[in-house]
Design brief:
Layout lengths: L2 H6 L1 E9 L5 H9 L17 E7 L2 E7 L9 H15 L3 E7 L6 H9 L6 E7 L6 H14 L4 E4 L8 H11 L1 E2 L14 H17 L8 E9 L5 E9 L2 H8 L4 H18 L3 E9 L7 H6 L8
Parallel strand pairs: 1-3, 1-4, 4-5, 5-6, 9-10
Antiparallel strand pairs: 1-7, 2-3, 8-9
Helix pairs in contact: 7-9
Length: about 300
């Protein structure tokens, strides 16, 4: 990139907020062009702020995938919701993602009530439009714009990519003139150790669905680059009950083996190197009350 082109660059942050399972993580992955945020049908899969980085023309857009906003009940819930609103407050633009199939529910109404207190340009994004008839989409867009004056409205399918390029182009135009904050080939600011742990957590949810409470976590304990160019990765899956440990391991170790195989495949794609993945399961009771666990997830520990 020449000195002249550097003067023309633009850069900024866009926070994606919404209710759980609105499709924020899927959209961030589409925008960044690679997996930077884990996805599952389980609510509250995303726990901390995940940044995906996209280049659109001369603009670098840093997308912040926030945890789904909902009525918190536990300490971990409160930390995630606080993290989500913190990510929105620091962004140049805030995109409210709404599941078009669900429409406006209590969670969306609560977000709409608080959104005017957040700075930045407000954008409405209706997701999963391929599952809803056009008249219903237009009615939903009109209702939401009637409750809050959005600068723009987009209708997309994050899963299929419909409407995503146009959305990214419009956001690029909103970015302020300035230098890029990340190298051109970087797609996320998440350390590989953290991304690998999140990928494994995604595979746990995919395999076990509702059998395991979402208060399980994964930590990368060892990452060693080997002489042959491969990486030896050791991860520990922490659960809160002995019964949960048995669920993760499965009969004869079949479940944890399947989780490891699926996780290793995605980690290899992310790191572009051969990976030897070793998984262990340990019980850590009441880890949800341990401040250190929150720091490792990039969350602020709620004291009350």
């Amino acid at each position: 990139m020449t000195e002249d082109s550097k003067m023309e660059t633009r850069c900024g942050f866009v926070a994606l907020i919404g209710a759980p399972n609105a499709g924020k993580s899927t959209l961030v992955n589409q925008l960044a062009g690679a997996k930077v945020s884990i996805v599952s049908r389980k609510v509250q899969t995303t726990r901390s702020l995940v940044r995906g980085i996209a280049i659109e023309g001369s603009a670098q857009i840093i997308f912040v995938d926030t945890p789904g906003i909902f009525a918190p009940k536990r300490r971990l819930d409160r930390a995630m919701v606080t993290s989500a609103w913190g990510g929105a407050a620091d962004a140049d633009a805030v995109a409210l993602l709404v599941d078009a199939r669900k429409g406006v529910d209590e969670e969306v109404e609560a977000i709409l009530a608080r959104l005017p207190q957040v700075g930045g340009v407000k954008i409405l994004v209706l997701n999963k439009i391929d599952t809803v008839e056009p008249p219903k989409l237009l009615e939903l867009a009109a209702r939401l714009n009637g409750e809050l004056a959005f600068a723009d409205t987009f209708m997309i399918s994050a899963l299929r990519g419909h409407g995503v390029p146009k959305f990214r182009q419009q956001l690029a135009a909103l970015m302020r003139p300035g230098p890029w904050l990340y190298p051109e080939d970087q797609i996320s600011d998440a350390p590989l150790r953290s991304l690998a742990a999140e990928i494994t957590r995604e595979k746990i949810f995919e395999r076990l669905h509702d059998e395991l409470p979402y208060q399980s976590t994964v930590e990368t304990e060892l990452w060693k680059d080997m002489p042959d160019g491969s990486a030896r990765i050791e991860q520990t899956i922490y659960v809160m009950r002995e019964g949960h440990k048995k669920i993760v391991i499965g009969e004869g170790g079949r479940t944890i083996k399947a989780i490891g195989t699926a996780a290793r495949k995605d980690i290899m794609e992310a790191t572009e190197q051969k990976v030897h993945l070793f998984l262990f399961v340990k019980v850590r009771e009441n880890w949800g009350d341990d401040p250190e666990r929150y720091r490792e997830m990039g969350l602020e520990f709620p004291k009350n």
